[in-house]
Amino acid sequence: MSKLKFILVVLVGYLCCCCIAQAEPAKSLAADPVLEKRMLRLTEELRCLVCQNQTLADSHADLAIDLKNQVREKLASGMSEQEVIDYMVQRYGDFVLYRPRLFAATWLLWFGPLLLLVLGFGFLIWKLTKHRTEAALEMTEADRQRAVEMLYEEPTDLKGNV
Amino acid sequence: MKRFIFPLGVFVILLGFLGIGLRLNPHEIPSPFIGKAAPAFNLSQLHDSAKTISPQDMRGKVWLLNVWASWCGSCREEHPVLMNFSRQNIVPMVGLDYKDTRVDAQKQLIEEGNPYQLSAFDEDGRVGIDYGVYGVPETFVIDKAGVIRYKYIGPVTPEVLAKKLLPLIRELNRV
Lengths: 162, 175
Prior knowledge:
The complex is a heterodimer.
Chain A: H1 2-30, H2 33-43, H3 62-76, H4 81-92, H5 107-138, H6 141-152
Chain B: H1 5-23, E1 43-44, E2 52-53, E3 63-68, H2 73-87, E4 93-98, H3 102-112, E5 118-122, H4 126-130, E6 138-142, E7 148-153, H5 158-174
Parallel strand pairs in B: 3-4, 4-5
Antiparallel strand pairs in B: 1-2, 3-6, 6-7
């Protein structure tokens, strides 16, 4: 009986240890799910400088992990999202922003596609109106007469005989 | 024939853009630090954890800050260039040992030679982040007033040293 008890105690103790051991590593991540969500949302707006075409949130580069820790810390210490972004821009320049800021040098970047669209439409309209006026101009009464003749008269051979 | 001129023109312009794009190095990101004061830090020295080092100590001198690590392959590439620079005794060079262990870093400096007057030990990479470091090696040129004047990303080659760093150092030393 006491032997069975002993085994039970050991088993329960073992299970408890397992639970604790498994819970431990996850704890730091899930410590504050709200904070974690804010951090992830913010780092999705920031570029990883090592991989460049990945967001900080996506990247597993060493530096990206360090920077994510920094962002987490700054947010936890009460910094606002904008302040954290300013902190990053101060260190890594506008390049870290996935959404470039609007200033003189980025006007073309922001409005270039719109400009191309407007130019394209302009070109299209110009071409169409030119085509229409040309068509209207070319068609004189004599031309019309000739067209009617060609369409409705009996076919003629080369000598003009019917 | 005439109708081909317009598309050809567009093609040539595109080709021009592509040509320029290919010559650019996407890893050379313009540093926002140029013309700004070097961020302050107070780190322990690599060789003596009891002593500290700060950019404030270098005031009045033109100096280089070279970010390196023993685990960094390209740092080995630039090492002979730095050794050569150090032997000429032009301006002091401070090493920032980035995310490293003291043992590994010291071992490497003993084995391969130490080009640095002083070495700061940035174990967790915090100071690196404050300097906008994203790939070692990186080299900063800092003037007498403590303002960052130039940043070079990647291993310093003899050519970079001769054409970019040395002329700038000479100019800054004259002021």
